[in-house]
Amino acid sequence: MVLPKDIPSSAENYMDSQTLTKLPISSILIIIAMQTEALPLVEKFQLSEDQKSVFPKEVPWVRYQGIYRNLQINLIWPGKDLALGVDSVGTISASLVTYASIQALHPDLIINAGTAGGFKAKGASIGDVFLVSECAFHDRRIPIPVFDLYGVGLKQAWKTPNLHKELDLKVGKLSTGDSLDMSAQDESSIVANDATVKDMEGAAVAYVADIFKVPAIFLKAVTDIVDGEKPTAEEFLQNLATVSAALDQAVTKVIDFISGKCIHEL
Ligand code: SAH
């Protein structure tokens, strides 16, 4: 929490966490896995790339930052894989950047925004943007009591009833795994997770946010229909640019809504 300018920073010592959560949100961390998804938002919020990184010099992670409507925005993109040059998608990079960003930037709220596969049987269509109610993993099968639950790693998103009412976004559960395709085993876990959307980062971000008790919300825009006719990779690439635009619009509306509110008013 970054205190408003008129409160001396020493006041933080005298404030309990209850008081702090009644202050308006001042610092938002946006985590986005792919450059195509991130750059339109960098432009929209007029963010600038960090010249002196808050991260270790070895990592490819990129921080864009700026002030938008009184909010300190930090947008973190895990960058391109150092060996292969593609976006560092997936749970490993997502959890590492979430951890390091929380440590370095102390956000009041995390927004994980990205594209996802959607299930038409659960009401998803191309271009829909979902506000996620809860996240779980579908590729961590450990059939031993209690480890099974650890593997699923179910986490609730921060509850945002007012945001939901105001913006009229679809709400659904998210299932996360490290593959773009879906094996038969993944499919049965996704059904067990009751998921409407499927991605490669959300539950990893949720895991780290939960450790540090930072409220987190997840906005996922559907690029491909998993239970449809078209091959996922082809459909994903076809729709990535247009759906990223829909995602960016939704993120902007969400940030506009957040501006001036405290965390319990969302
Ligand atoms: N072929 C792509 C690879 C991107 S991986 C490329 O050329 O860049 C897919 C990214 O989009 C991940 O960040 C993931 O979170 C999201 N995604 C979109 N559709 C998905 C699906 N059906 N399953 C899993 N992740 C999906």
From TrEMBL:
Coiled-coil segments on the chain, per record: none
SUPFAM superfamilies to which the protein is assigned, alphabetical: Purine and uridine phosphorylases
Superkingdom, taxonomy of origin: Eukaryota
UniProt record, GO biological process: L-methionine salvage from methylthioadenosine; nucleoside metabolic process
GO terms assigned for molecular function: methylthioadenosine nucleosidase activity
Gene3D superfamilies per record: Nucleoside phosphorylase domain
All copies of domain Nucleoside phosphorylase, residue ranges: 28-255
Name of the protein: Nucleoside phosphorylase domain-containing protein
Organism: Cucumis sativus
